[in-house]
Amino acid sequence: MRALTLVADRELKLADVPPPPPPGPGEVQIRVKAVALNHLDLWGFRGMAFAKRKLPLVVGAEAAGEIAALGPDVSGFRIGQPVVMYGALTCGTCKACREGRDNLCENVKGVMGFHIDGFARELLNMPARLVVPVPDGVTLRDAACAPIAFSTVQHMLFDNARLEPGETVLVHAGGSGIGTAAIQMAKAIGCTVITTVGDDAKMEKARELGADHVINYRTDRFEGAVRKITGKKGVDVVFEHVGAETFNGSLLSLKRGGRLVICGSTSGPTTSINLMQLFQQQYRIIGSFGATLANIRASLAKMADGILPVIDTEVPLADLQRGLARLESRQVFGKVVVQF
Ligand SMILES: [Zn+2]
Question: Which of 72, 81, 137, 320 could cysteine-pair with 67, CB 3.0–4.6 Å?
Protein backbone atom coordinates (compact mmCIF):
# COMPACT_ATOMS: atom_id res chain seq x y z
CA MET A 1 0.00 0.00 0.00
CA ARG A 2 1.04 3.62 -0.46
CA ALA A 3 2.42 5.74 2.39
CA LEU A 4 3.87 9.20 2.17
CA THR A 5 7.00 9.28 4.29
CA LEU A 6 9.40 11.97 5.43
CA VAL A 7 12.86 10.52 4.80
CA ALA A 8 14.93 13.61 5.72
CA ASP A 9 14.22 17.25 6.56
CA ARG A 10 12.24 18.72 3.65
CA GLU A 11 12.29 15.41 1.74
CA LEU A 12 9.14 13.37 1.18
CA LYS A 13 8.92 10.00 -0.54
CA LEU A 14 5.84 8.08 -1.69
CA ALA A 15 6.73 4.58 -0.50
CA ASP A 16 5.21 1.16 -1.03
CA VAL A 17 4.86 -0.37 2.44
CA PRO A 18 3.22 -3.56 3.75
CA PRO A 19 -0.38 -3.15 4.95
CA PRO A 20 -1.03 -3.38 8.71
CA PRO A 21 -2.00 -6.72 10.32
CA PRO A 22 -5.70 -7.29 11.10
CA PRO A 23 -6.80 -4.97 13.94
CA GLY A 24 -6.14 -6.35 17.43
CA PRO A 25 -8.37 -6.18 20.52
CA GLY A 26 -9.70 -2.67 21.04
CA GLU A 27 -8.59 -1.56 17.59
CA VAL A 28 -10.24 -0.68 14.30
CA GLN A 29 -8.65 -0.57 10.88
CA ILE A 30 -9.23 2.59 8.88
CA ARG A 31 -8.96 3.23 5.17
CA VAL A 32 -7.74 6.84 4.99
CA LYS A 33 -9.55 9.04 2.44
CA ALA A 34 -8.43 12.60 3.16
CA VAL A 35 -5.64 14.26 5.12
CA ALA A 36 -5.82 17.95 6.04
CA LEU A 37 -2.65 19.97 6.46
CA ASN A 38 -1.78 22.22 9.38
CA HIS A 39 1.12 24.41 10.35
CA LEU A 40 2.24 21.49 12.49
CA ASP A 41 2.99 19.55 9.28
CA LEU A 42 5.16 22.38 8.11
CA TRP A 43 7.15 22.36 11.37
CA GLY A 44 7.59 18.61 10.98
CA PHE A 45 8.56 18.86 7.30
CA ARG A 46 11.19 21.53 7.93
CA GLY A 47 12.61 19.55 10.84
CA MET A 48 12.80 20.79 14.39
CA ALA A 49 15.71 20.14 16.69
CA PHE A 50 13.46 19.37 19.64
CA ALA A 51 11.15 16.95 17.85
CA LYS A 52 12.02 13.47 19.04
CA ARG A 53 11.31 11.16 16.12
CA LYS A 54 12.78 8.51 13.91
CA LEU A 55 12.83 8.83 10.12
CA PRO A 56 11.36 7.66 7.85
CA LEU A 57 8.08 8.83 9.32
CA VAL A 58 4.61 8.63 7.75
CA VAL A 59 3.32 12.23 7.65
CA GLY A 60 -0.24 13.50 8.19
CA ALA A 61 -1.67 14.65 11.53
CA GLU A 62 -5.34 15.23 10.70
CA ALA A 63 -7.46 12.88 8.61
CA ALA A 64 -10.75 11.19 7.83
CA GLY A 65 -11.46 7.74 6.47
CA GLU A 66 -13.74 4.72 6.58
CA ILE A 67 -13.78 1.70 8.88
CA ALA A 68 -12.16 -1.18 6.97
CA ALA A 69 -12.09 -3.85 9.70
CA LEU A 70 -12.98 -4.27 13.37
CA GLY A 71 -10.89 -5.83 16.15
CA PRO A 72 -12.35 -8.99 17.75
CA ASP A 73 -14.02 -7.23 20.70
CA VAL A 74 -14.95 -3.91 19.09
CA SER A 75 -18.60 -2.85 18.81
CA GLY A 76 -20.26 0.43 17.95
CA PHE A 77 -18.70 0.73 14.49
CA ARG A 78 -19.61 -0.81 11.13
CA ILE A 79 -17.56 -1.54 8.05
CA GLY A 80 -17.58 1.42 5.67
CA GLN A 81 -18.58 3.90 8.38
CA PRO A 82 -17.02 7.36 7.91
CA VAL A 83 -14.82 8.36 10.83
CA VAL A 84 -12.10 10.76 11.96
CA MET A 85 -9.20 9.93 14.20
CA TYR A 86 -7.69 11.69 17.22
CA GLY A 87 -4.32 13.18 16.29
CA ALA A 88 -2.23 11.69 19.09
CA LEU A 89 -1.84 8.28 20.68
CA THR A 90 -2.99 8.92 24.23
CA CYS A 91 -3.08 6.23 26.93
CA GLY A 92 -6.77 6.26 27.85
CA THR A 93 -5.99 5.34 31.46
CA CYS A 94 -4.27 8.32 33.14
CA LYS A 95 -6.30 10.85 35.14
CA ALA A 96 -6.44 13.37 32.28
CA CYS A 97 -7.59 10.76 29.75
CA ARG A 98 -10.18 9.36 32.17
CA GLU A 99 -11.54 12.90 32.59
CA GLY A 100 -11.79 13.30 28.81
CA ARG A 101 -8.83 15.66 28.57
CA ASP A 102 -6.70 13.60 26.20
CA ASN A 103 -4.64 16.63 25.21
CA LEU A 104 -3.21 16.58 28.76
CA CYS A 105 -2.43 12.83 28.70
CA GLU A 106 0.49 12.01 30.99
CA ASN A 107 1.68 9.06 28.88
CA VAL A 108 1.09 10.27 25.34
CA LYS A 109 3.10 8.33 22.75
CA GLY A 110 3.25 11.33 20.45
CA VAL A 111 1.46 13.40 17.84
CA MET A 112 0.56 11.44 14.71
CA GLY A 113 2.61 12.47 11.70
CA PHE A 114 4.99 14.48 13.86
CA HIS A 115 6.55 12.22 16.51
CA ILE A 116 5.07 8.93 15.34
CA ASP A 117 3.72 7.58 12.03
CA GLY A 118 0.74 9.62 10.84
CA PHE A 119 -2.26 9.27 8.56
CA ALA A 120 -0.86 9.72 5.03
CA ARG A 121 -1.13 5.98 4.29
CA GLU A 122 -3.91 3.90 2.85
CA LEU A 123 -4.62 1.74 5.90
CA LEU A 124 -3.81 1.94 9.60
CA ASN A 125 -4.96 0.46 12.90
CA MET A 126 -6.08 2.80 15.67
CA PRO A 127 -7.47 2.27 19.18
CA ALA A 128 -11.25 2.43 18.73
CA ARG A 129 -11.51 4.88 21.65
CA LEU A 130 -9.66 7.48 19.56
CA VAL A 131 -12.00 7.13 16.56
CA VAL A 132 -15.06 9.36 16.18
CA PRO A 133 -17.98 8.71 13.77
CA VAL A 134 -18.73 11.37 11.16
CA PRO A 135 -22.40 12.45 11.16
CA ASP A 136 -24.57 12.07 8.05
CA GLY A 137 -24.23 14.83 5.49
CA VAL A 138 -20.61 15.74 6.30
CA THR A 139 -18.14 14.85 3.53
CA LEU A 140 -14.87 13.12 4.37
CA ARG A 141 -13.00 16.08 2.90
CA ASP A 142 -14.67 18.44 5.37
CA ALA A 143 -14.53 15.93 8.24
CA ALA A 144 -10.75 15.71 7.77
CA CYS A 145 -10.57 19.28 9.12
CA ALA A 146 -12.31 18.37 12.40
CA PRO A 147 -9.69 16.59 14.55
CA ILE A 148 -7.16 19.43 14.62
CA ALA A 149 -8.31 22.63 12.89
CA PHE A 150 -11.95 22.83 13.98
CA SER A 151 -11.48 21.17 17.36
CA THR A 152 -8.47 23.33 18.26
CA VAL A 153 -10.68 26.37 17.66
CA GLN A 154 -13.56 24.83 19.60
CA HIS A 155 -11.19 24.15 22.54
CA MET A 156 -9.61 27.62 22.41
CA LEU A 157 -12.74 29.72 22.10
CA PHE A 158 -15.15 27.79 24.29
CA ASP A 159 -13.22 25.64 26.83
CA ASN A 160 -10.33 28.04 27.35
CA ALA A 161 -11.39 31.62 26.51
CA ARG A 162 -15.02 30.90 27.49
CA LEU A 163 -16.27 33.14 24.71
CA GLU A 164 -19.83 34.35 25.32
CA PRO A 165 -22.50 35.57 22.90
CA GLY A 166 -22.27 39.33 22.40
CA GLU A 167 -18.55 39.56 23.13
CA THR A 168 -15.98 40.98 20.73
CA VAL A 169 -13.13 38.78 19.54
CA LEU A 170 -10.00 39.55 17.54
CA VAL A 171 -9.07 36.61 15.29
CA HIS A 172 -5.54 36.76 13.93
CA ALA A 173 -4.80 35.53 10.40
CA GLY A 174 -8.43 35.21 9.38
CA GLY A 175 -7.41 33.49 6.15
CA SER A 176 -5.68 30.57 7.88
CA GLY A 177 -7.33 27.20 8.43
CA ILE A 178 -8.04 27.89 12.09
CA GLY A 179 -8.75 31.58 11.44
CA THR A 180 -11.52 30.78 8.97
CA ALA A 181 -13.03 28.34 11.48
CA ALA A 182 -12.74 30.82 14.38
CA ILE A 183 -14.52 33.59 12.47
CA GLN A 184 -17.45 31.30 11.69
CA MET A 185 -17.73 29.74 15.16
CA ALA A 186 -17.63 33.12 16.91
CA LYS A 187 -20.22 34.60 14.54
CA ALA A 188 -22.46 31.57 15.00
CA ILE A 189 -22.96 32.42 18.70
CA GLY A 190 -23.48 36.12 18.03
CA CYS A 191 -20.08 37.68 18.66
CA THR A 192 -18.57 40.69 16.95
CA VAL A 193 -15.54 39.49 15.00
CA ILE A 194 -12.52 41.59 14.08
CA THR A 195 -9.93 39.80 11.98
CA THR A 196 -6.57 40.47 10.36
CA VAL A 197 -5.42 39.38 6.89
CA GLY A 198 -2.27 40.00 4.87
CA ASP A 199 -3.68 41.23 1.57
CA ASP A 200 -6.67 43.09 0.17
CA ALA A 201 -8.06 40.10 -1.75
CA LYS A 202 -8.46 38.23 1.53
CA MET A 203 -10.33 41.15 3.12
CA GLU A 204 -13.41 40.53 1.00
CA LYS A 205 -13.28 36.78 1.62
CA ALA A 206 -13.07 37.32 5.37
CA ARG A 207 -16.12 39.61 5.22
CA GLU A 208 -18.01 36.98 3.24
CA LEU A 209 -17.26 34.50 6.02
CA GLY A 210 -18.95 36.84 8.47
CA ALA A 211 -16.18 38.99 9.92
CA ASP A 212 -17.57 42.37 10.98
CA HIS A 213 -14.27 44.24 10.66
CA VAL A 214 -11.24 43.22 8.61
CA ILE A 215 -7.79 44.77 9.03
CA ASN A 216 -4.96 44.42 6.51
CA TYR A 217 -2.08 44.06 8.95
CA ARG A 218 0.47 44.92 6.26
CA THR A 219 -0.98 48.38 5.69
CA ASP A 220 -2.52 49.13 9.12
CA ARG A 221 -1.24 48.60 12.65
CA PHE A 222 -3.86 46.15 13.88
CA GLU A 223 -3.73 47.24 17.54
CA GLY A 224 -4.50 50.85 16.55
CA ALA A 225 -7.30 49.72 14.26
CA VAL A 226 -8.80 47.54 17.01
CA ARG A 227 -8.83 50.42 19.49
CA LYS A 228 -10.55 52.60 16.90
CA ILE A 229 -13.15 49.93 16.07
CA THR A 230 -13.93 49.28 19.75
CA GLY A 231 -14.03 52.97 20.73
CA LYS A 232 -10.76 52.56 22.72
CA LYS A 233 -12.31 49.82 24.88
CA GLY A 234 -10.48 46.83 23.42
CA VAL A 235 -11.79 43.33 22.75
CA ASP A 236 -12.92 40.66 25.21
CA VAL A 237 -10.90 37.87 23.61
CA VAL A 238 -7.87 37.63 21.31
CA PHE A 239 -7.40 34.44 19.30
CA GLU A 240 -3.61 34.19 18.90
CA HIS A 241 -1.52 31.82 16.79
CA VAL A 242 0.87 34.20 15.04
CA GLY A 243 2.99 34.74 18.16
CA ALA A 244 6.16 36.82 18.19
CA GLU A 245 5.09 39.38 15.57
CA THR A 246 1.68 40.08 17.09
CA PHE A 247 1.71 39.11 20.76
CA ASN A 248 2.31 42.53 22.32
CA GLY A 249 -0.13 44.18 19.95
CA SER A 250 -2.62 41.50 20.93
CA LEU A 251 -2.25 42.37 24.62
CA LEU A 252 -2.73 46.06 23.77
CA SER A 253 -5.92 45.11 21.91
CA LEU A 254 -7.51 43.55 25.01
CA LYS A 255 -9.88 45.33 27.33
CA ARG A 256 -9.11 45.23 31.05
CA GLY A 257 -9.67 41.67 32.26
CA GLY A 258 -9.65 40.40 28.68
CA ARG A 259 -8.54 36.90 27.70
CA LEU A 260 -5.84 35.99 25.22
CA VAL A 261 -5.82 32.38 24.08
CA ILE A 262 -2.85 31.12 22.06
CA CYS A 263 -2.27 27.84 20.23
CA GLY A 264 0.68 28.61 17.99
CA SER A 265 3.50 30.97 17.14
CA THR A 266 4.04 30.75 13.40
CA SER A 267 6.11 33.96 13.33
CA GLY A 268 8.57 32.81 16.00
CA PRO A 269 8.59 31.32 19.48
CA THR A 270 9.82 34.10 21.81
CA THR A 271 8.71 37.55 22.89
CA SER A 272 8.93 39.74 25.99
CA ILE A 273 5.95 41.13 27.81
CA ASN A 274 5.34 44.05 30.13
CA LEU A 275 4.49 42.46 33.49
CA MET A 276 3.14 45.73 34.93
CA GLN A 277 0.64 45.84 32.09
CA LEU A 278 -0.18 42.15 32.59
CA PHE A 279 -1.31 42.49 36.21
CA GLN A 280 -2.63 46.05 36.13
CA GLN A 281 -4.86 45.25 33.19
CA GLN A 282 -5.72 41.85 34.73
CA TYR A 283 -5.18 40.03 31.47
CA ARG A 284 -5.63 36.30 31.33
CA ILE A 285 -3.25 34.51 28.96
CA ILE A 286 -4.18 30.91 28.20
CA GLY A 287 -2.02 28.42 26.34
CA SER A 288 -3.96 25.89 24.30
CA PHE A 289 -2.74 22.83 22.46
CA GLY A 290 -4.81 20.23 20.68
CA ALA A 291 -8.30 19.35 21.75
CA THR A 292 -10.43 16.74 23.45
CA LEU A 293 -12.49 14.00 21.85
CA ALA A 294 -15.56 15.99 22.94
CA ASN A 295 -14.23 18.97 20.94
CA ILE A 296 -13.98 16.73 17.85
CA ARG A 297 -17.59 15.57 18.31
CA ALA A 298 -18.72 19.19 18.77
CA SER A 299 -16.80 20.24 15.65
CA LEU A 300 -18.40 17.53 13.53
CA ALA A 301 -21.82 18.51 14.89
CA LYS A 302 -21.16 22.11 13.85
CA MET A 303 -20.23 20.90 10.36
CA ALA A 304 -23.49 18.94 10.21
CA ASP A 305 -25.25 22.22 11.15
CA GLY A 306 -23.62 24.01 8.23
CA ILE A 307 -20.43 25.56 9.62
CA LEU A 308 -18.08 24.14 7.00
CA PRO A 309 -14.33 24.40 6.65
CA VAL A 310 -13.11 26.76 3.95
CA ILE A 311 -11.09 24.66 1.51
CA ASP A 312 -8.31 26.54 -0.27
CA THR A 313 -6.74 23.71 -2.25
CA GLU A 314 -7.10 19.97 -2.79
CA VAL A 315 -4.05 18.02 -3.90
CA PRO A 316 -3.47 14.31 -4.58
CA LEU A 317 -1.32 12.35 -2.14
CA ALA A 318 1.77 12.49 -4.33
CA ASP A 319 1.54 16.31 -4.31
CA LEU A 320 1.39 16.81 -0.56
CA GLN A 321 4.60 18.81 -0.73
CA ARG A 322 2.91 21.30 -3.07
CA GLY A 323 0.20 21.67 -0.44
CA LEU A 324 2.82 22.38 2.21
CA ALA A 325 4.44 25.00 -0.03
CA ARG A 326 1.05 26.64 -0.43
CA LEU A 327 0.66 26.70 3.37
CA GLU A 328 4.16 28.10 3.80
CA SER A 329 3.56 30.86 1.25
CA ARG A 330 0.82 32.39 3.45
CA GLN A 331 -1.21 32.69 0.26
CA VAL A 332 -3.87 30.32 1.51
CA PHE A 333 -7.40 31.17 2.42
CA GLY A 334 -8.64 28.17 4.36
CA LYS A 335 -7.46 24.59 4.45
CA VAL A 336 -5.28 22.48 2.19
CA VAL A 337 -6.63 18.93 1.91
CA VAL A 338 -4.85 15.90 0.46
CA GLN A 339 -7.10 13.37 -1.30
CA PHE A 340 -6.32 9.68 -1.65
ZN1 LIG B 1 -3.50 9.42 29.20
Answer: 81
